[in-house]
Amino acid sequence: MISLNINDKTYQIDADRDMPLLWAIRDLVGLTGTKFGCGVAQCGACVVHLNGEAVRSCVTKVGRAEGQKVLTIEGLSEHNDHPLQLAWNEISVPQCGYCHSGQLMSAAVLLRENPNPSDEDIDHAMAGNICRCGTYPRIRKAIHMAAELQKQKETTE
Amino acid sequence: MKSTINQLITKHWAVFRLIGVMGIMLCLVSLMSLASNTGNKAEVSTATLVVKKDSVASVAAFKKVYRVLMSPRCMNCHPAGDVPLQGDDSHLHTMSPQRGLEGKGVYAMKCSNCHQPTNTPGKNTPPGNPNWHLPPANMKMVFEGRTAHQLAKQLMDPKQNGNKDMKKLIEHADDGLVLAGWNPGEGRTLPPMSHAEFKKAWLTWLSTGAYAPKK
Amino acid sequence: MSTEQVSRRNFLRMTSVAGTALCLGFYFPSSAEEAEIINAGIADGIKDFEMNAWIHINVDGKVTIFNHRAEMGQGSYQSVPQIIAEELEVNMKDIDIRFAQGDRKKYGNQVTGGSSTIRTSYKNLLKLSATAREMLILAAANKWGVTAQECFAEAGHVIHKPSGKKFHYGELVVDASKLTAPANIVLKERSAYKLIGKPLKRQDTPMKTDGSAIFGLDKKLPGMKYAAVERSPRLHGKIVSYDATAALKVPGVQKVFKVRMGVFTIFREGVVVVANSTWAALQGKKLLKVTWDDSGFEHISSPVIFERQQQALQKEEGLFLKKQGDPDAAVAAGKKTLDLVYQTPYQSHSAMEPLNCVAHYQGDKVEIWGPIQAPEWVQDYISAQLQLPLEKVIINMTFLGGGFGRKAFMDYPHEAALISKEIGAPVQVVWTREDDATQGPYRPGISYRCQASVEEGEIKALKFRMAGQNNDQWRSGKKLTTANRSTSEGFLAPYYKSIPNISFAEVQFETPIPTMWWRSVYASTNGFAYESFLDEVAHAAAQDPMDLRRKYLQDERSQKLIDKIEEVSGWKKRNKNEGYGVAITECFASTVAQVVKVSKDNNGKVKIDQVWAVMDCGWYVNPDIIKAQVEGSIVMALGAATIHEITFKDGMVEQRNFYNYKMPRITDIPPIEVFVMDNTENAGGVGEPGLPAFAPALTNAIFDLTGKRIRKLPFDMASV
């Protein structure tokens, strides 16, 4: 049995330690917000946070996550109100939406480490996430908006 | 022995002035022990170490070293720019991961987000290492585009080599990431010689005066 | 077909808790242009009323709107309810939106392709929603004993104007359901719209930002198994033998067997590994050893394909699709003629959600859940293949993680159904990215030969012919005797009025490669040839490319479109050292003009500075969704023009995953500005028409800047 802490909840799963975290999360834990896109760390659809870092769960073995803190899209905020989620909704960023769990999890690390990202910073943070629908212009716009929302939130709190 | 080493110091290693004889002795001991520890049959003899300044042997050794360093397995993580290279053709790494200050990537694009502690099985999957990184921003140690002459000079310049002294340079041959070049994951070509051969050339080069080829 | 001929039971699916009859239905025979409204009986005691197939209202006033089309990013989940809510007079925030099951008797054509959702159903949706509203108003008027004229509907309520009394819809639905549907419903004027035409936020966004949207891959059933299939690397290989020893040793792998799935008229074989997790199935698949018989079909390579096409274009006239005047004579006698060849590549759809499907075969029926663009085709196909009555093949829709045409096929649901039948349990079949990339069907690679005669600045003749695989060939499986009906797709009809001699012909060309629709279909490649060629003609005629289009597209609608693109792009205020290119294409009843601006960066490399697009899709619902679709189409076109292509070597596809079928990334995207024309013409498509104009506008701009003409896609921007 492997003990996983996902979104502050502990799960005991019966899995080979080499099983990618992606499939453990989706098939064994049953959280399906994290997506399978390529299986080889090319597309970013499977990004989750492992101790705060935006790891690609399709190549991260579940053994690496044992006893560590995993955060999936379902745990990004309690009420779908992370500044990025608010901005994504405000701007209607997703089209098919399949890649956006990964896009948001990647962007969340960017905003945490750089509350005021430039276009170049966004390029540096987001070039690992593919969107076949081509929502890139809106992703960029929404990250800028989320940075603003995050600042406002901090000043009001 | 002392005099030859001092000459070397004068020639190349300003930093050695600070180390003193004991340090140098330690280096040589560790060099010998390292060489034998790896089971290298053609190990560097004491004579080679002691007999410094053999420019011909040194340059010849470096040419071997250079071939390895310029192979994709080494050069790809010593790029001219701030984006690593990828593949046997050393193209710019897909998705343009950035070096970052520590050489470990930035934001959502940190090396270890994809590069696991070990190689991911299969072709075209991220190779792994627990400490996957590029040289840091303040010490980029660029291989890409360097001539053998430039690279040799650069490797011996503490201002450019990460303040590595002889001991550290010797040790670097067995650095985990250097060794990873010989365990590159499925589908990637190996460096042009074995690690043992490389290490022998590396040590030979260092111990014969670390001469830089003319070009 | 008249209403009398329709058995009411046919369309009234029992959806209420009580499972009894429902009140009002709108029957859409698939052949009929317009819906026919019919009444059905009503039973007492039920709480949830199907006002019609799209609208359910329960006695508490909760309104549920059913989206009858696939949602694959194009926005039907928002735009269909936005239309209905307008005439029904309900707030978007107060409604529930659900996917309809596949049911042609209730919904008519549900095939989500050809950018058809709005343009083929908006008139009916407006009418049925207004009808439901009028019945609710009438029910209220009857309750109050007043005339309907004194009442109006607003925000889910009927209000008696003089007294201010109001009922919510839930209080009226029982009575309304007993009324006869009124005829001659008057629809709102566009100026009175509160929702239609407004850039409302999409209702599916919240689900797509917190992981709760259920895509095909997210569907789970109790006891569901997972399956992965090892497929022939050569598209049509047959299994000689396979060794499952190693696969069966993987913990969690339960069964390995041969499976066969239909791709239209052909069948493909594979070896399936069934397991208790996706991971186990994928591991088992990797360990299978399959021997393939690759005989009986040509092992083709890409260079051969294009060589043959281009040889054929020089030798054959082909089958004419359209011909006016005598372009042959005009070209033969022309003083100044052009004769040029353009080439466009095969492409993979590569939706982010790899193909997958859940099937549960239960003896007398099979139920399917998946990312499906064409539920009735899946229903038809599985019904025929598994010999089940149509109504025993139940197709449930999920969100699609992209479709672009690929998810309109029946192969992957068919395969899932067969596997479920074999194992006697529900199963989810997951295609790997490699399966997705290497199996096709693909957009066909096409070569074009374009000829023109130009005299004294006038276009005398245009003669187009193409050689490329015909998707209809794959659907029918028969050798076709008429020209590909999409041969001129992308070309603007007004040119026929201003240019005396025009012809379009198809030089028939086939290979064993399965091909099928890819976003904007033939317009996606035709547009490149036609609009590049017109640019070349403009230069040959010593005319500004925009002026040339203005001169030959004389209808008012085109003129306005040209005015707009010229204005927003600053076409006439161009600076030195900037290249501008224009292209205008039409497909699926919408016309899009694009201008691309390029310049050289500090290293002398050509870069794209800006893209402007103007979409004329006539009557429209949500301008923000339209803009998003055009933005996305441009990004997809950018990838297909400058980044990726599918190539074949010895009968095998060379690309396997995103490492060698590279996608545009956020770093590749220029600023894009989209404008939507405002008019009340019939609604046109939105999801696809923004794509074809991009590639030619880009290469025309590169020519403008550098004098270098690009006639073959894809090309590498870095090497221009």
TrEMBL record, chain A:
- Domain 2Fe-2S ferredoxin-type as annotated: residue spans: 1-76
One Gene Ontology MF term: oxidoreductase activity
Keyword terms: 2Fe-2S, Iron, Iron-sulfur, Metal-binding, Oxidoreductase
Organism domain of life: Bacteria
Q: Does the keyword Phosphoprotein apply?
A: no
What is this protein identified as? Answer: Isoquinoline 1-oxidoreductase alpha subunit
Give the organism's phylogenetic lineage.
Bacteria, Pseudomonadati, Bacteroidota, Sphingobacteriia, Sphingobacteriales
TrEMBL record, chain B:
Q: Which residues cross the membrane?
A: 12-35
InterPro entries reported for this sequence: Multihaem_cyt_sf
Keywords of the record = Membrane, Transmembrane, Transmembrane helix
The protein here is known as: Cytochrome c domain-containing protein
TrEMBL record, chain C:
Q: Which Pfam families match?
A: MoCoBD_1, MoCoBD_2
> What highest taxon heads this organism's lineage?
Bacteria
Which residues belong to any copy of the Aldehyde oxidase/xanthine dehydrogenase a/b hammerhead domain?
210-296
Query: What Gene3D superfamilies does the record tag this protein with?
Result: Aldehyde oxidase/xanthine dehydrogenase, a/b hammerhead, Aldehyde oxidase/xanthine dehydrogenase, molybdopterin binding domain
The entry's protein name is Isoquinoline 1-oxidoreductase beta subunit
State one molecular function term (GO). Answer: oxidoreductase activity
